[in-house]
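Task card 7
Instruction: Convert sequence to structure tokens.
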Amino acid sequence: MGFRGTITDASDFDPTADAETLFNAMKGFGSDKDAILDLVTSRSNRQRQEVIGAYKCSFGKDLIEDLKYELTGKFERLIVSLMRTPAYHDAKEIHDAVNGVGTSERCLIEIMASRNNRQMNEMVAAYKDAYGRDMEDDIIADTSGHFKKMLVVLLQGARDESGVVDADLVQQDAQDLYAAGEEQWGTDEAKFIMILGNRSVTHLCMVFDAFEIIAEMSVEDSIKRELSGDFERLMLAVVQCIRSVPMFFAKRLYKAMKGLGTADNTLIRIMISRSEIDILDIRECFRLLYEKSLHNMITDDTSGEYKRTLLNLCGGDDDLAGEFFPEAAQIAYKMWEMSAMTKVQLRPTVLPASSFDPAADAQALRKAMKGFGTDEDAIIEIIAQRSNAQRQEIRRTFKSLLGRDLMKDLKSELSKNLERLIIGLMLTPAEFDAKMMRKAIEGAGTDEHALIEILVTRTNEEILAMNAAYHSAYKKSLEEAIHSDTSGHFCRILVSLVQGAREDGPADEERAIVDSQELADACNAESDDMVMKFMSILCTRSFPHLRKVFQEFVRYSNKDIEQIIKKEMSGDVKNAFYAIVRSVKNQPSYFADRLYKAMKGLGTDDRALIRIMVSRSEADLFNIRKEFKETHDVSLHEFIKGDTSGDYRKTLLLLCGGED
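Output:
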């Protein structure tokens, strides 16, 4: 791939004149920060090194020391880092990561997973020159286990870069990875380290494709299942960099800026290290993944000269048309192809209790609610650790043994969010969904996000069971309720989904091409016609078929379906179609984002939190947990623990099932 940076050699470059400009900018009281940042960000790193030499020759002073003296804070860190060569900058980042208070494992992972052999070897030499120690010795002293072993392998800078691929070895490596993880009890970590740490990028891309055919899951999903902790994060980073280094950095940049506070060290490190390599591709990947351009996110998240310098490195603001550079279009196409090929094994967090005795559970629950006060711990321990089918047996046994209605007793003894959560667990899935739909519709205001979430993510069978439960409980059809509370295209989308008539089965490749062309053509039609065409395809086709449609849409239009929806549609219609696309691509990831939004910032959307934790605990909450950790750099367990309290928190954490 050719040059994809934003910083290039300045024409008519004169290092002596630049040195004088910088000297004058720092002379006297105060400093001309604009002059400094404009000059430094308009010169390549090679030219900056010449300016450093010219400055010393002309003024007998060290330019970097003068910059440190004149500038402060994040702006100083950014400018001074720009003045170092890439190798010495990486060496300093590694040194700071392993020699500070605690180890910055994320910095180690980012650098070690993303650098090629030449960059790695130059960094090791720079480290030795700057600090008089071997980088390998320092990393070994500060890390442990398989994480340490993989770092040492990567540090050798010996990955095969020949470009030669042996088809037989591809199949053997794919089979060895499968045998090392999915096929056996326990994991052969050494096999993962050997293959992922040494094989060429081209070879590994083919291995990953072959692995998906053998295992019916992506290698990323296998790593999430088999590995843990920093070793898991390192191996995932290696795989992501093998697939697409720009995509890896786009995700790192987003995580550095989202939410409260900014991970400025990460932001500075990436913007500097990629500005002369592939920042244009990173910008495109960023736009592909998120709702705003990298330029806009930097603008919103930083300020002052620091912001101006970062924006100069970024190099421009991308509009949201959804059109890609060829490299980004290929990445988008590949993402949908991976989604289509991968069969994720969904894993619950709540399983049927062994040695289940419904009579004993019924008696224990009655005892917990009898007399003065309530033993909430006993109630939680039973209900949160039984499957829904077992809870229904307890309900029936409670009535037959004690002549009492368990649901009424629980409602009278519990209160607030704990009551809502426990009652939600005691309802059948169909009853619970029906109740959640009722809550979303009734009263002042409509919870459109809840309506979308439920109808988009449930199977035909679940929707039909919910319809029956709704009619039984409220003596009115769910479709009627939707009609009475929503309108326009949004109402039509919900009515289409509530039929529970989405097609089943695999993708029809010929039909997928036709569907993708019709969607692309609809983008040029009137707004109403566009929405109706999108509804006729997105609300009726099977998820496997839609994955193929969205993949072909990229090929046909050079646009991504998500970006089109964000740009061309608005309001609830946009949110509904976007939820369908996100669920088609990766439903656990969609739920992880919904949980994050329910708890981030001030206040908690407890209804959404309860709804998702109850409905997914016996379906795919383990997968949601993994997606949550990967996307938000914090475990779901930790997020719940920090955002809730008391018995409510205890119940949610039992449903969560563990900390990643």
